[in-house]
Amino acid sequence: MNLTLRKANKSDSRFLFELRNEEEVRCVSRNTAPIAFSDHKKWFEKKLASSVSLILIAEENGTPIAQTRFDAKGQYAEVSVAVVSAFRGKGYGTKIIADATKLFFKKYTKVFAVRAYANLGNAASVKSFSRAGYRHLGEVDDEGTTRHLLVFERLN
């Protein structure tokens, strides 16, 4: 594994759009509908300019293989992760989550904890977050849907 993380930039728009619209990614997302590129472009530009959002691109030997997005909300943040299908089930998710969470806490020093929500049928996500050090707190209501809640708290 030759994995690196870097901040997303404008040139990552197409990669993120295609990843977000993969059927396997959509079916485990809050919004399962396909996203139009024009909507994605507006959303992405807004996220890149936001002081409370951080999008990281994971690369294996220079090739983008995943994205991790953090959205800070006061002392808490929410994280979402998507890995390209060819790299799923190989341990990349766990490594990406662990490394990205460390980077996030370095940049956002006032955030106390990161929350991850996973659909009830998404055992792979629960497993990856748990292996990355997130605590599984059980099932909760999230925007009218029951999901797993996993939390990683700042240690210092």
Question: Would you mind describing this structure in some detail?
Answer:
Helices cover about 30% and strands about 35% of the residues. It has about 160 residues and is an alpha+beta fold. It has a single domain, classed as Gcn5-related N-acetyltransferase (GNAT) (Aminopeptidase). The chain has a seven-stranded mixed β-sheet with strand order 1-2-3-4-5-7-6, sandwiched between helices. The longest helix is centred in the middle third of the chain and has 16 residues. About 25% of the residues are buried.
Instruction: Just give the CATH class.
Output: Alpha Beta
What proportion of the residues is helical, as a percent range?
A: 25-40%
Proportion of strand residues: 35-45%
Give helix and strand order, one letter per element, not per position.
EHHHEEEHEHEE
Going by helix content, strand content and strand pairing, the class is alpha+beta
- CATH arch. level architecture: 3-Layer(aba) Sandwich
Q: How is the main sheet built?
A: 7 strands, mixed
Separation of the first and last Cα atoms: 29 Å
Kindly provide the radius of gyration, computed on alpha-carbon positions and rounded to a whole number of angstroms.
Answer: 15 Å
User: Which descriptor suits the 3D outline?
Assistant: globular
Number of domains: 1
Q: CATH fold name, please? A: Aminopeptidase
Mean of the pLDDT scores? 94
Q: Give the strand line-up of the largest sheet.
A: 1-2-3-4-5-7-6
